[in-house]
């Protein structure tokens, strides 16, 4: 199995500010400008993660790029596949037909419907960037980008 960096969540320090969602939207917008992304782009870009708030606990729900990714096996068109070099589960938007099967099988609820475009969106770890924008912009460092969970625990 490919050793790859993943986003880990320290839910005990997440304050539920949703800045990870905002910056994810901006990072996946055409303009990559916060004002244009929210006021001028149509359709508005969707974040690839969502913050769940349960009483005093909040956490960002995003794709875990599972070793045995059920979304890949469930995809009817082969639009979801694992990049052989990076290990990231990717989506070929041209092949996605919006059947939502992957949404039904994702154990984390991390895949979202883009009903305007008729396809799915999910975390791509901000491919092409040094670090995912949600991690870079988390004001409380609740999101960490590391190879193993032990690396995250070592940073506490």
Could you explain the architecture of this structure?
With 156 residues, this protein is α+β, with helices and mostly antiparallel strands. It folds into 2 domains: 1-62 and 124-156, Alpha-Beta Plaits (2-Layer Sandwich); 67-107 and 114-122, Alpha-Beta Plaits, CATH 3.30.70.20. 22% of the residues lie in helices and 19% in strands. The chain is built from 6 helices and 8 strands; from the N terminus they run E-H-H-E-E-H-E-E-H-E-E-H-E-H. Strands 1-8 form a two-stranded antiparallel sheet. The two termini are 27 Å apart. The mean pLDDT is 92.
Q: What key attributes describe this structure?
A:
single chain, about 160 residues, alpha+beta, Alpha-Beta Plaits, two-stranded antiparallel ribbon, globular
Cross-sheet strand order for the largest sheet:
1-8
CATH class bucket of the largest domain: Alpha Beta
Radius of gyration: 15 Å
**Overall tally of domains:** 2
Mean pLDDT: 92
Strand content: 15-25%
Find the structural class using helix and strand composition.
Answer: alpha+beta
Number of strands: 8
Largest sheet: 2 strands, antiparallel
Could you name the ranges where pLDDT drops below 50 across 5 or more consecutive residues? none
CATH architectural group of the largest domain: 2-Layer Sandwich
- Backbone shape: globular
What level of helicity do the residues show? 10-25%
Distance between the termini: 27 Å
Secondary-structure element order, N to C: EHHEEHEEHEEHEH
Mind sketching the topology for me?
Blueprint: E1 6-9, H1 19-27, H2 34-39, E2 50-54, E3 57-61, H3 70-74, E4 80-82, E5 89-91, H4 101-105, E6 112-114, E7 119-121, H5 133-136, E8 143-146, H6 149-154
Antiparallel strand pairs: 1-8, 2-3, 4-5, 6-7
């Amino acid at each position: 199995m490919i050793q790859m960096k993943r986003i880990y969540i320290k839910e005990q320090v997440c304050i539920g500010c949703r800045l990870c969602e905002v910056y994810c939207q901006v990072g996946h917008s055409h303009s990559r400008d916060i004002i244009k992304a929210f006021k001028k782009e149509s359709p508005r870009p969707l974040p690839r993660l969502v913050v769940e708030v349960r009483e005093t606990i909040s956490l960002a729900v995003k794709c875990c790029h599972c070793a045995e990714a059920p979304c890949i096996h469930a995809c009817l068109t082969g639009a979801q596949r694992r990049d052989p070099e990076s290990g990231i589960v990717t989506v070929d938007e041209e092949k996605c037909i919006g059947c939502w099967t992957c949404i039904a099988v994702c154990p984390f609820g991390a895949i979202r419907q883009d009903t305007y475009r008729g396809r799915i969106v999910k975390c791509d770890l901000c491919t092409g960037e040094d670090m995912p924008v949600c991690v870079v912009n988390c004001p409380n460092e609740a999101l960490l980008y590391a190879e193993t969970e032990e690396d995250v625990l070592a940073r506490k």
